[in-house]
Write a structure and sequence with these properties.
Helix content: over 70%
Distance between the termini: 83 Å
Number of strands: 0
Radius of gyration: 26 Å
Shape: elongated
Length: about 230
């Protein structure tokens, strides 16, 4: 039984040993490819190293790669993609930001940063990042989807609060009613109408059922507020 336990333990540990060796070997190949200026091969070997042993690959990138080079951005992207895949959004965000330092107007990288900000619960930061995306690419689908839904949901929250507060008033005066209607009008113009503009761009490019439903909801609210 003791022999069987030792054998089982060895079999379990073997893949991890092999993985570590494979990672080290891949990094040696990365170094060799970099020395020979074989950039595509270097990225390919680095991808293998990341999948085999991400910790060693990350250390190699941090300590052994010139961050001012194009190859560094591609390696950072490999690390970011890996961490996104395993849902380590904090680290993925850091490596997407690394790429932005070299290419601050890269729409794809900006969109990836915004996506990570959403996953990390930083919606306000994501809004600002997606606004940068739209400044560079006004028809960007992901940015229009996020910003449209962001303003819509914010407007819904504000509308619900105003209506809840108003319903608490047993006998509202004309002044209180007027303020209630003014509040709804403000939310319509600063929230729902802004959301509509972004979501209309979405449906002009993509037949989104959800966006269509939201737009219909906005039309209904607009009629209610303006009646």
């Amino acid at each position: 039984m003791k022999t069987l336990t030792l054998l089982f333990t060895f079999l379990l540990s073997f893949p991890f040993v092999l993985s570590a060796q494979t990672g080290e070997e891949a990094l040696l190949k990365v170094s060799s490819a970099l020395s020979d200026k074989q950039w595509n091969q270097a990225v390919s070997f680095f991808r293998q190293a990341v999948n085999a042993n991400v910790d060693k690959a990350e250390m190699f990138y941090l300590t052994g790669v010139d961050k001012s080079t194009d190859i560094a951005s591609k390696m950072a992207d490999e690390l970011a993609s890996y961490y996104k895949k395993v849902r380590n959004y904090d680290k993925a965000y850091l490596f997407y930001k690394e790429q932005l330092q070299k290419s601050p107007n890269d729409v794809t990288c900006l969109s990836s940063c915004a996506e990570m900000e959403v996953y990390r619960g930083k919606e306000s930061d994501a809004l600002q990042t997606y606004e940068k995306v739209l400044a560079l690419d006004a028809d960007n689908l992901s940015a229009n989807i996020f910003i449209g839904n962001y303003y819509y949901l914010k407007a819904e929250q504000e509308k619900q609060k105003i209506e809840t507060d108003y319903k608490k008033i047993t006998s509202p005066t004309r002044m209180q009613y007027a303020r209630y209607r003014e509040g709804l009008s403000r939310i319509l113009s600063t929230g729902y109408i802004k959301a509509r503009g972004y979501l209309e761009k979405v449906v002009s490019q993509f037949p989104s059922t959800e966006a269509q439903k939201t737009l219909e909801r906005i039309r209904v609210i607009e009629k209610e507020v303006n009646r």
